[in-house]
User: Which sequence fits this backbone?
């Protein structure tokens, strides 16, 4: 008994828990400052730079990186790729937490959280792209919650409710794909209104398509990346099926990501060509654009392909980190670095440390919730009462 | 040296021509890349 107590005490005072406690404590303090002192108290935002990393990272990257849910569930339930079934629940959970945290992060940027339902129920801006994004994100978050709920119901022993929700799987997956297609591309469409502010290499009338295609890349790569981390830290929770299918998921998703990346590379080049923007490639911004396009699109595509050909899950797993970084870099470029590119350096935005603090705080909330859920609910294994019930 | 365009017609003819050639190259390239990607698949 004493040994158990010592083990429990060890797990409570682990390094992760200590770091989480510090980050959450600092985050709560900055939250207090934000909602009592306003944006000026904790951010470097200004009239020239009305949005910063809370939009570029927490929102744009958050939505893109949470795309694994719809990508995986459509592969399994709509395209019948049952061999990837073990990846569905972790991907849905990541998607659900990702979207929930996007909504949370938005409260910091927009303020007055009690007004969150206003755009939907009080004053609809039906001509705004942002209205469509808001509507889709709210609906899709609900869909993800329902898609995730069977795992929670199995954990709570709610058999009848669980069986009812499982019958809706195909319908929910179709909803997920439709809603994701709409809002992932609409997040790109938001930038159609700023042709004079966004650098011509990143601005394109095809930007909604770019955003949608990169969300597929982010979704596929995040499933591989998240699976790698789960195997590292939660292998003890995985059942035989999950462990057996892991390499197949990595190779299959790596192959898909490689081909989508190659397609994305092609449409980006076609975008430059159709706008005849070649001359910008010779400038400083052009060099930075080539770093993004060659280093974070072409290179991961090639590395994924080599990994698939030589059947190296390790290479694919490392490449997924590069691809995820590429999507993050793209969102930062569109939203911050190549945005307001004509402003003098003195007027350019750099985030306040407290803005970064809130972003880290929100990521940490996601990690803590993910750990809480996967160590309790049947996410990485099948519940014994529902074996082969899919 | 970048070409100089005097009319919109010139600009469209040039950019569309280059883009159409790139589209053909993309279609061929994507097919070859698919073969490369799936070349070692079993069965």
Assistant:
């Amino acid at each position: 008994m004493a040994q158990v107590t010592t083990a429990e005490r060890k797990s409570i005072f682990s390094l992760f828990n200590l770091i989480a406690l510090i980050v959450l404590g600092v985050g709560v303090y900055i939250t207090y400052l934000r909602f009592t002192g306003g944006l000026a108290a904790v951010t470097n935002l200004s009239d020239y730079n009305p949005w910063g990393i809370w939009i570029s990272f927490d929102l744009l990257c958050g939505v893109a990186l949470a795309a694994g849910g719809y990508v995986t569930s459509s592969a399994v339930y709509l395209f019948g790729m049952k061999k990837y079934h073990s990846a569905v629940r972790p991907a849905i959970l990541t998607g659900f937490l990702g979207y929930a945290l996007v909504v949370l992060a938005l409260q910091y940027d927009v303020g007055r959280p009690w007004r969150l339902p206003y755009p939907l129920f009080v004053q609809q801006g039906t001509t705004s792209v942002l209205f469509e994004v808001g509507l889709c994100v709210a609906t899709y978050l609900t869909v993800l919650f329902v898609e995730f709920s069977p795992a929670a119901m199995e954990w709570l022993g709610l058999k009848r409710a669980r069986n009812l929700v499982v019958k809706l799987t195909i319908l929910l997956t179709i909803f997920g794909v439709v809603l994701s297609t709409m809002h992932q591309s609409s997040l790109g469409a938001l930038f159609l209104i700023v042709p004079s502010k966004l650098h011509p290499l990143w601005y394109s009338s095809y930007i909604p398509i770019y955003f949608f295609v990169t969300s597929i890349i982010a979704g596929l790569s995040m499933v591989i990346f998240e699976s790698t981390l789960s195997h590292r830290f939660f292998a003890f929770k995985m059942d035989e099926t999950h462990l057996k299918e892991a390499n197949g998921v990595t190779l299959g998703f790596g192959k898909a990501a490689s081909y989508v990346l190659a397609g994305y590379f092609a449409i980006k080049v076609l975008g430059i060509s159709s706008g005849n923007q070649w001359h910008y490639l010779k400038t400083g911004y052009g060099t930075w654009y080539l770093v993004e396009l060659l280093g974070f699109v072409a290179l991961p595509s090639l590395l994924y392909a080599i990994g698939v050909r030589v059947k190296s899950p390790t290479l694919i797993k490392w490449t997924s980190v590069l691809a995820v970084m590429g999507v993050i870099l793209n969102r930062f470029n569109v939203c911050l670095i190549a945005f307001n590119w004509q402003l003098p350096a003195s007027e350019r935005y750099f985030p306040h440390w407290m803005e970064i603090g809130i972003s880290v705080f929100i990521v940490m909330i996601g990690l803590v919730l993910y750990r809480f859920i996967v160590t309790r609910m049947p996410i990485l294994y099948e519940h014994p009462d529902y074996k082969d019930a899919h | 040296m970048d070409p100089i365009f005097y009319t919109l017609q010139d600009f469209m003819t040039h950019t569309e021509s280059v883009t159409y050639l790139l589209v053909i190259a993309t279609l061929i390239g994507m097919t070859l890349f698919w073969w490369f990607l799936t070349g070692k698949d079993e069965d």
